[in-house]
Amino acid sequence: MKEIFNDILAMEDVQGVVFSSLEGEIFFMEPPIEIDRSLPLFIRALGGIREADLIFEKSRIYVRKTETGYLVILLGLFASGAMLRLHVDMALPSLKERGKGKGLRSLFRRNK
Amino acid sequence: MVKKVLIVDDDQDMLLSLEEGLSEYDETFSILTAEDGLGAVDELKNNTISLVVTDLKMPRMDGFSLLSHIMEHYPEIPVVIITGYSTSEMERLAREGGAIGYIAKPFMIDDLAKRVITALRKEADGGTLHSVSSGIFLQLMEMEAKTCTVRLVEKSSGKQGILFFLEGQLLDARCDSLRGEAAAYEIFSWDDVSLSIQNACPQRERRIHRDLQAILLDAMVVKDELKRLGKGASPRKKEPAPSKEKVERMQPVERVKELLKREVGEGYGIEDIYEDNTWESFVKGIGRLGMAFKAGEFRVAYVDRGDSKDFILLPGESVTVVSVNPRCARDRIMEALSEESGFAGFDGSILSHERNL
Q1: Of B324, B158, B160, B331, nearest in space to B231 by CA
Q2: Which of A101-105, B150-154, B239-243 has the lowest mean pLDDT?
Q3: DSSP-based helix, strand, coil % in chain B, nearest 5
């Protein structure tokens, strides 16, 4: 799973990647980030979006809805948006491919 | 192609006189300066340097340490040592360390200039080309299995980059602070370049593992994306910012209009700006997400719902919405809004209110 996100994680100023199911269950998180336990609810509350780029006082959060879940990327304020979107576009086919047939639950190790 | 020469010396007077004395060669090379080895390391990271002239005795990081750093990280950059404490042992150590020249102080500036120019000529011993497309040329390098160092300058911006080929394989690239594939993407997105070829590739470490064709193709995608976002547009003369008092008197929608007109300009895919509190619960959700990630106060969001329009949301007493064409200059608009959002009064008050409940 991690290899799908290697290019994203290697980008300058990318601080973490979280991939959750459409229901908010976290499948992948790298590096392990200390986050609020209610994160799945918050992700689910963003339902209806295809993509969102959220800028906060200290960092940015990029959210992308995929066929199989939500990709949430935590960034510093200076990460390149265009390059990030390119890497995400490139990662999406692999995510889709990995999700085919076997069911996501069997593929993704759940971080606790 | 004007090269950049970095002069490193802790003696300010020496730096100034060298800068002034070498300024008559500014059609051949320009001068950057640093006051010690650590300053030089920063300059090397952020610029494409062609040659380094350095003193030996300096605080924080001396000339030998700098020489060693250059040989390890920038082996293609020639180094000339200048020192006021010259001994034959020091000269031997400097040459063994990789320095191509060793000059004892005091020296004539013209003598240093000659050494610099002679060394710089080697950068182009394989020839120079002007107004070429980097993509086609680099594919030729690959086809002919060339071993060379290619230095490129983008004509419109003056940006410089460097590519290392070993038997036709692209080993590494560098452009300002970028290295490896990221630098290659940047360089391959340039349309009109001048380039010089050095028939040697001192770099041996491989940082690029992908095929040249694949990188060229991806670079085209990034380039199209940046064009779409308006990054390639020529710099626009900004209107002066209004006074803080005047801004404070404006309504949020007026503030955003004024800001975008000033910072982004007319057009760029902005369709409408208005207040719309139907977004309030969504904005609260964003605020909670930010809290979950300890990201601080929410400033601005770009939201794509797959509709014909995308939306930029700014929190406040009411939610200010900028509706945009999905092909708008997204990053430019977001950058302007996020930089100015605190000043413009978008203080996340909806979220502050929620936190107080």
Answers
A1: B331
A2: A101-105
A3: 45, 25, 35
